[in-house]
Design goal:
280 residues; mainly alpha; Arc Repressor Mutant, subunit A; 3 domains; three-stranded antiparallel beta sheet; 5 strands; 6% strand
């Protein structure tokens, strides 16, 4: 599991380096572009002034029109270079934003890279309490992913990412990638239990299947299941999403509040779980 942490920190460093590069391109390109435009305007005004008839003064020792007029080809190349830097920087920063929107793993990396250095300056008793809440919730819900953990405890993205990083750095928790998600468990978790996390019919999910089995063909909504199991809405959504993704539950009603029922695969998984428990 330490391998995952090492990969994660290298990703943090890469994001910070990429952000610095993109921001530098955007700022430098913008400054040079607008300064360049100002210089062109000044040169144009100077050129217009010199082209006006000025009697005897026209033959003075002032600069000629040719001296204040820059090379058009050189102007175009410089302008294109500065514009390119602006687009490169803006595109790089935009890619970070879009990546964070569509991938939880990438979003956590960006948050840790950019926000946690600012949050880490404030260390107080409340931080210790927040980490204690996170640690206790992870222990009770091994394998929970970032957004479900964040929503269940009502924490902000940056705060969650920072405290999870501190807990992982101190060896209190472990994390790993699961597709676009990042999952968490306490570091003292046994190897067998860690393997069982990947089994969608253990613990809370097994309880959900049992409740749905008792409901028959009527089915139950998320809120109804949550009331029976005294579970928060966020945590219920998390487990329902996992069970649905494994094709253990389904709904005939395609509404915002569907009634979930066991599929044939879900019934088979539930029976196998009972059989496994009877042999323990």
């Amino acid at each position: 599991m330490l391998y995952f942490s090492g990969i994660h920190m290298r990703e943090v460093f890469a994001v910070r380096l990429f952000t610095l590069f993109a921001a530098s391109c955007l700022v430098f390109g913008s400054v040079m572009y607008y300064n360049y435009d100002d210089n062109l305007i000044e040169n144009s005004e100077e050129s217009d002034r010199l082209s006006e008839p000025a009697g005897a003064d026209f033959a003075s020792d002032g600069p000629s029109e040719e001296e204040v007029t820059t090379n058009p080809t050189s102007n175009k190349q410089s302008q294109d270079t500065y514009s390119g830097l602006i687009f490169l920087g803006a595109g790089g920063l935009s890619s970070l934003i879009f990546g964070a929107l569509f991938s939880e793993v990438f979003r956590i990396t960006v948050l840790i890279s950019l926000l946690t250095p600012m949050i880490s300056r404030s260390k107080n008793r409340e931080d210790l309490l927040t980490r204690g809440r996170l640690l206790g919730y992870i222990e009770a819900n091994a394998g929970i992913y970032f957004s479900a953990l964040r929503d269940s405890l009502g924490l902000a993205n940056g705060v969650s990412a920072y405290h999870l990083q501190v807990l992982e750095k101190n060896g209190k928790i472990i994390s790993w990638k699961d597709g676009k998600l990042r999952r968490y468990a306490i570091s003292q978790i046994s190897k067998s239990k860690l393997e069982n996390i990947r089994n969608p019919i253990m613990g809370t999910r097994l309880a959900i299947l049992e409740v749905l089995s008792n409901s028959g063909k009527l089915g139950l909504s998320n809120s109804e299941i949550g009331k029976k199991l005294s579970m928060s809405r966020q945590l219920m959504n998390y487990h329902i999403s996992e069970l649905r993704g494994s094709d253990y539950i389904d709904s005939n009603l395609k509404t915002k509040r569907p009634k979930w029922m066991l599929t044939d695969l879900g019934i088979e998984a539930l029976n196998l779980s009972y059989s496994f428990q009877n042999h323990q």
